[in-house]
Amino acid sequence: MDDKEAIEKTLGGSVEAFGHLVSRYESKVYAVALARVFDHQDAQDLSQEAFLRAYMRLPMLKNHDAFAPWLFMILRRLCVDFLRGRWRKERMQETALQLAQGADSPADPRQRIDEMEVAQTLWARVAQLDDRSREVLSLHYVQDMKVREIAELTGLREGAVKMRIRRARSILGDRIGDLKGAWGIAPLPTFAGGITKALTAVGPLKGGIAATSFLGGFLAIMGSLWWSATGDLNRWQNHAPAGMVKEGKRAIVRGVLYFAAVMLLAPLIAFAVALALPLAHSPAATVPDWVRHGAFAVYCAVLITLFGAVVKRETDLLSPRERLKQFVNIAAVIAMFATTAWLPAFGLGAMGLVLALQYFFINKSDVALGVVPPGIWVGPVLKYGAAPEVKNSPISKRQLRSWLTILHEYGLVAPPLVNETGGFRVRLRVRGSLFEKMAYGPANSSLAVDTQGVANCTITPRDYVALAKHLDIEVLPGRQELAKSLGPAFTNALTAYAAGGGKVAVADSLGLGQCPIDPARSYRFMLLRYVLPVVGIVLIAVSLFRLVT
Question: Rounded to two decimals, what is the model's pTM?
Fold first, then answer.
């Protein structure tokens, strides 16, 4: 199995394939590390770390034929960082003192010959060479590699390799034959095993085509989000005050930046956790299994409880059909992660299937919360919605909930849905904030309706200030007056619905008939409903092609 084939199989989820690369290069990597740090144990640790980092970063390697030079570049950077740290100040002084005193150093590779003689001749001369020359020296005289092979491995030209070999001969002289005995090149029995254990703890790479094009995929996602958000905002140009449109543009920038930060931070956190896993599973870990398993069970229980509470809250204002679709969608996502973890070869296809199913799972309520600017409806409602005569009609709780679902699909209200005596209370969307959906209690403006068909609104000072900044001041009444004006408007809309009217009647009653309030016409809806399924179908086709070939 050559390097390219082993890399492709590793990206496909085979940890064992990377083991072939470890077996092929472990002695050479160890030799180069030892040539730089002069310590057997440090060289072993740096070699293992180099292989682990190479494994984690393998999806970023574009040229699979250049694995060896790339691996040695990672090793050199590790050695440089290592030598710049505490070891350079303290470890070298300690080693020099031990050599001067003739002290035994079991972990030192120089133990095979007399320490004082080594200090005075061979190793003192080796230290006169630069780092690259010591690498070439180790690979040529200890690993018995040819000039061409060393050039391919290190990325140097053959002429540069020959020059370094000649310089090494001139400095070491007749002692160059002692290198193999002094170098201690044979890896420890735990060397390859430690790497394999670390890779197993990290788990299979979710690589392949998706991982190697992470940057392109990330830019495509960001570009599509920007396109859909700005396109939807432009549809409101003739229906919203200039201040609100300007705020909407700033909100798009903030949203894209927050999303980009999350997208970039998640891989870093995953990488840090992956590096910590070998430490948690090392022989030095003395935590009993029942403690670790119990802690993991508690963690899962808390996570499931919090996730369940969020899902319940966010689906309260959905129709029964839409609620069922969302639960099925969540189950599909969980199944996708499970498939990716246990059957990596099918991970890409599972992701494609979930994306393809978004054609059926996307609901207009969630889209409306993203495309209808908060507070945009206040102006039309004040102008058209409040009729001189307010009429209310008794209505059942089931009908109340259905009516609130319509308002949710228009982007006027949002969860949580609070069940009160004889009615419900929901949040009025009059202020745009990234974290407003997390707020509970009186911090949010609200709409309360009862079974007598009466609606009442409350506007908090913070929401009123946000509206005053974006709406025309002469249009906006005082805070209490605004709440009293919105209440009758929603009461008339509720009466229109109780009389047998549908969504159109509710929109006309609130003065929203002339606004582009339909989320199904938004760019975001088209992106989620049509573009994602097409991407999913492509991923399924790619996955099938990879499995067949």
Answer: 0.56
